[in-house]
Specification:
With 313 residues, this protein is α/β, with parallel strands linked by helices. It has 8 helices and 22 strands. The N and C termini lie far apart (60 Å).
Length: 313
């Protein structure tokens, strides 16, 4: 009697990161005959473009976050894993996890996105949260609403003024959206909710070190957005860099402004993917890859999304 042939083991693809790039990749590979493991440090996929609306009370967290397991519950080829990645052993072809375990792979895709960059001042993170996660959004929302509540009870004019001052650092899309919606809340929505303060007196600062807001967009759009913000009552400060942030406020150049709510939207850096692989990175920390998104010298490893920078000749 002939021996039964062993069932071939499907090619194992490990995808790290369930953001837009990682999620779309797994969706596109439906029916490809692969065994896929999707690893993320959170159990939900987040629609980041609408985070600012959670931060400013417009949307609930459940409206922009979806459980990863639910997204793939009909996909027998996909295993989702809640874990934090600590590194990659390229020789053994293993993804190393923070708990000391490892996941082997045949092909690896890193789609780990970007994180906040405080340009060497990481101590500012606790004072000026950025906006990348649901936790960030709820922290900003809590601080903003508490500032109004504390101002309602504050009798000292200077302290009340600081509580009613909101600073957004960085005038890219996130900073512009946040400054605009905070102004709308303060000046158009909340003003009838309090008895001892007029929220329309709130001061909203949008601080940008560069010469214009939305620098990645055409100048006509930057000018239009700036005019719209100013019409809402936002003070747009251009060519002004923040030199210090404290619990009492921000220092803009040499000028100190009392402020209890500060939001960071000034910069991002890529995840440590390049360091994990031991390959070159650009100034923002993005892994340098070829036009096929392959890591140099590693045909079995790809880097995609905000983690990758395609090397040019």
């Amino acid at each position: 009697m002939a021996e039964a042939e062993a069932t071939p083991v499907a090619h194992h693809l490990v995808v790290v990161g369930a953001g837009f790039a990682g999620l779309q990749l797994v969706r596109d590979l439906k029916g490809a005959g692969l065994r896929i493991t999707l690893i993320d440090q959170r159990n939900h996929h987040l629609f980041q473009p609408l985070l600012y609306q959670v931060a400013t009370t417009i949307l609930a967290t459940s409206e922009i976050a979806w459980p990863i397991r639910r997204l793939f519950r009909e996909r027998a080829d996909v295993t989702t894993l809640l874990a934090e990645v600590a590194g990659v052993d390229t020789e053994r072809r293993q993804v190393l996890l923070e708990d000391g375990s490892a996941i082997g792979y045949d092909t690896l895709v890193l789609a780990t996105g970007a994180r906040h960059s405080y340009f060497g001042r990481d101590e500012w993170a606790a004072l000026a949260p950025g906006l990348k996660t649901l936790e960030d959004a709820t922290t900003i929302r809590r601080r903003m609403l508490l500032a109004f509540e504390q101002a309602e009870r504050e009798t000292d004019p200077e302290k009340r003024r600081a509580l009613l001052t909101f600073a957004v650092i960085g005038a890219g899309p996130t900073g512009v959206e946040l400054a605009g919606i905070i102004a709308e809340l303060a000046k158009q929505i909340l003003w009838q909710e309090f008895r001892h303060i007029d929220t329309r007196d709130a001061r909203i600062l949008l601080i940008e070190a560069g010469p214009r807001i939305l620098a990645a967009f055409p100048e006509t759009l930057s000018d239009y957005a700036r005019a719209a913000l100013q019409k809402l009552g936002v003070e747009v400060l251009l060519g002004r860099a923040v030199s210090e942030i404290s619990a009492e406020g921000v220092t803009i150049g040499e000028e100190f402004v009392g402020c209890r709510t500060v939001v960071w939207a000034a910069g991002v850096a890529a995840s440590p993917a390049a360091a994990w692989l031991g390959i070159p990175a650009d100034r923002a920390g993005r892994a340098s890859v070829d036009a096929s998104l392959n890591a140099p010298g590693r045909p079995e490893i790809f880097v995609i999304g905000d983690t990758a920078a395609v090397a040019t000749a």
